[in-house]
Amino acid sequence: MRCPRCGHIEDRVVDSRVGRDGHAIRRRRECLDCGARFTTYERVELSLPLIIKRDGRREPWDRGKPMRALRVACQKRSVSTDALNQVVDRIERELAALGDREVAASAVGELLIAELRQLDDVAYLRFASVYHSFDTINEFLAEAARVRRESLDGAPTDSDEPPEAA
Fold first, then answer.
1. In this structure, what DSSP letter does residue 7 have?
2. What's the CA angle centered on 85, arms 41 and 87, to 5 degrees?
3. What is the Cα–Cα distance from 116 to 128, expressed in whole angstroms?
4. Bridge partners, 40 (sequence order)
5. Are 138 and 129 in contact (CB under 8 A)?
6. Three-state DSSP string of 117-155
7. Are 151 and 128 in contact (CB under 8 A)?
8. Mapping DSSP to helix (H, G, I), strand (E, B) and coil, where does residue 12 land?
9. Phi, psi angle pair for 117, to nearest 5°
10. Rounded to the nearest 10 degrees, how much is the dihedral formed by the CA atoms of 105, 110, 111, 113?
């Protein structure tokens, strides 16, 4: 690691700690040339599969893509960036645990939608409306009614109709 102040490549580790998320190591380092102290973070690099797109193309996993989708879905919602990072971390671990060399993009989408469903109902509906390509307002309202039923008490109700306004 190069010193950010002088560019020297030799340093010593002053302190090491497990990061907040438990999946990174935070190291305080000191440059052996100028004495500057700086922090580095080391993450375990998971062996992640190639993603098979709908058109058959294969792309390496890009953490930024699901992160951007989550940010759009959660725009103007009270969902922290830390929570979004944790979602992508969980998806990465799940993909790595599969042990497959390739995974369909639709499988990643299903993981994302399941995570969003747990995270924020409105963000979930935003994402689902695009991901499931709702063509009519009735499709959207039916999904919103299902989410509402599950959110209220987890028990199904007799109607998928939204409640009447008072």
1. -
2. 135
3. 9
4. 27
5. no
6. HHHCHHHHHHHHHHHCCCCCHHHHHHHHHHHHHHHHCCC
7. no
8. strand
9. -60, -35
10. 120
Q: How many residues does the chain have?
A: 166
Which residues lie across from 103 on neighbouring strands? Answer: 51
Q: Which residue is listed with tokens 């993009």?
A: 105
| Per-residue pLDDT tens listing for the chain (166 residues) | 899 999 999 999 999 998 776 778 899 999 999 999 999 988 777 789 999 999 999 999 999 999 999 999 999 999 999 999 999 999 999 999 988 999 999 999 999 999 999 999 999 999 999 999 999 999 999 999 998 988 885 544 444 444 444 3
- Tell me the β-bridge partners of 50: 60, 102
